Amino acid sequence: MHKAERMKLCIALFLLLLVASCQAKTLIVDPGESGDAKTLLAAIILAGNGDTIQIQPGNYAGAIVDKSVNISGSGFVIVDGSLAVTAPGCRVSDITIKARGKDAGVSFASQDNQLVRCTVAGIATAVKVTGMNNSIRDCRIDSPQGVEIFGAKNEVLQSAISGSTAIRINGTWGGMISGCQISALQGVLIEDSKGNTVDNNTFSGNGFGVVLTRSHDNDVSHNNLSRGYVSGLDVVDSSRNNLTNNYITGGKVGISLRGSQNCNVTGNICVKNERTGIFAEGASQNLLVSNNLSENGNGILLQGSLENSLISNQAYRNVYGISLRGCAENVLRENVFKENSYNLRVDSGQGRSGSSNYDFFVQDIDQSNLADNKPICYLVGKADLMVPTDCGFLGLVSCKNISAANLSLKNSSMGVLLVNSTNCNIQNSSISWAETGFLLLDSQVCTIFRSQARDCKIGFAADGSSGCQFAYDQARNCSAEGFRADNAQGLSLLECEIQFCQSGIALHESRLCRIQNSSTGKNQEEGVLLSKSHNCSLIGNEAFSNDRGISLAGSNSCFLQANNASENNIDGFSLQQLSYAHVQSNIALRNGQGIYVQSSRLLNLTGNILGENSRFGLRMSNSKDGNITENNIYDNRIAGANLVDCAGFLLYHNIFGKNGIQNAADNGQNQWDGGPAAGGNYWSDHPVFGNPADAPRQIPGGRSDRYPFQDPGGWL
Predict the structure, then answer these.
(1) Residue 594 placed within a domain
(2) Interval 93-152: pLDDT, tens
(3) In this structure, is residue 21 part of a structural domain?
């Protein structure tokens, strides 16, 4: 053999040996004698990069994996302790890892590693990832903190994770959570991160499903969230996130945008969430498109939010379809409302007493929105128009000279809403099943004429409005008031009828209002209530079969004339804690009490008929100063007049006829006659001769009528 050939042969043998030495080998870990090592740590020491370590069934201590190896379990392998992977390109599979201390069960401090088909449990964090491009797949993880990710482009796939927080992504980007079964108080928490994807996962729990905090440009899609989440998808102080095609049911809130901007919320299905399907608070310029919202408290609820676009959403069978509360300049297009208790709600978000900030009502809502197949008519700043008759909702904001007639509306928070509008006229219209049938907010000189509100919470309402008139209107079966006014001035109710409501007519903190020739009957509480409402007139009204007929509380300088308050359970007329009332020529028959007066002063009760009441015709307590004259008080079961701790009243020219136990009683300092010229009163139980006579009639309690009359009306 030539020297050159021998040299070639040597080189070939050397290369063969070199290749053989570089081939990956498999090391067996067995606590018995048949393996290459008895512990995982010993096997790692023996292994080279690229080798496989196969672990036989048994319990083993944890280890630091500082070589690029493939570690796999054969059978039931348990690692009691932690695996700290510091080398890149490692693969750990088919192992159960039980971390005992505060360290994570598995930590990836390097890149391109895999955790496959493993079960990881611990008392703190199960898996902690600080390196990049690592993968967790087909694993079962159960720990208070499931997976914590601080590195970029890591993924968790097809895994079952339970704990307090299942997955936390913090200060990084490019992560992927997909195909996982997550049961946790908090499912996926993404903090100060961007460009992450959470898709096709199934969540269950009672805290928060997916939370994005101070994060942007993330995608959350095709997830299924169920059970009792406070919020399924919770986006806080974040922007430009995509929340698409998720299914969320059974929680408090489906999707929440709090202080967030420019997010895309599209194609989600939110069903049976207690408060709302989609919620936005302090949010702006978000896009809500083609979401399906059914059987929620609110389909969509925007609160204190502005310049959001709501397009082509379907709101079915919710309590409220879409609510805009304390919001401004939102755009609604092609949304469909059906079978909601209240299709559309627009208000100041401050409760019944509205804000004077009309910006809360400035919304861009056109007739492409349909409420039960009728277009929503929402006009802002318009004038001199006639509204179409086929509206499903009517809102007039800062409008003038707008007319509407023959509307038939139902199932809206407010059927007709007038805000800061002037000289608008609604007539011959009917509203049913609304929170408030007709609401006039800070409006002037508007008229609601020959219209009806049935089965509403409040039939007709005026808040902060002045000079408006309600004429020939009817309210029936309202669960609160048939008519309510707050902070109103100069309102008129003429020939209106209110029946079968909680309260008939209620005025609160209003003044210079007039209620005339109206009827309130069979209401559960007051037929008419004036609370802290002054200088009002009630003339020619009927209040039958209510709890109380006509009640004034803290309402001064009011005038009541020719009203009939009869057959009410407690009082025909109730006057409490007020000054300067003139009550003239009214009728109160067959009530508990005809007129009841408490803690009031400067009253004039004249020419009233108070009879056949089950207790007293007139009962007064803790009141002073006034005239009680020319009243006919008869056939009341206990007493005609009963004055307790009263003073300064002058009572004369009254008829006391055949009252039950006694005609009158008075323990105070009151005068029961007008002197010898004017005389006193007629008493059915005290016959005298003369009109007036000089045979005093003693009043139980210490007073007396010095000049009683022989004949009823003998003073005429």
Answers:
(1) yes
(2) 999 999 888 889 999 999 999 999 999 998 899 999 999 999 999 999 999 999 999 999
(3) no
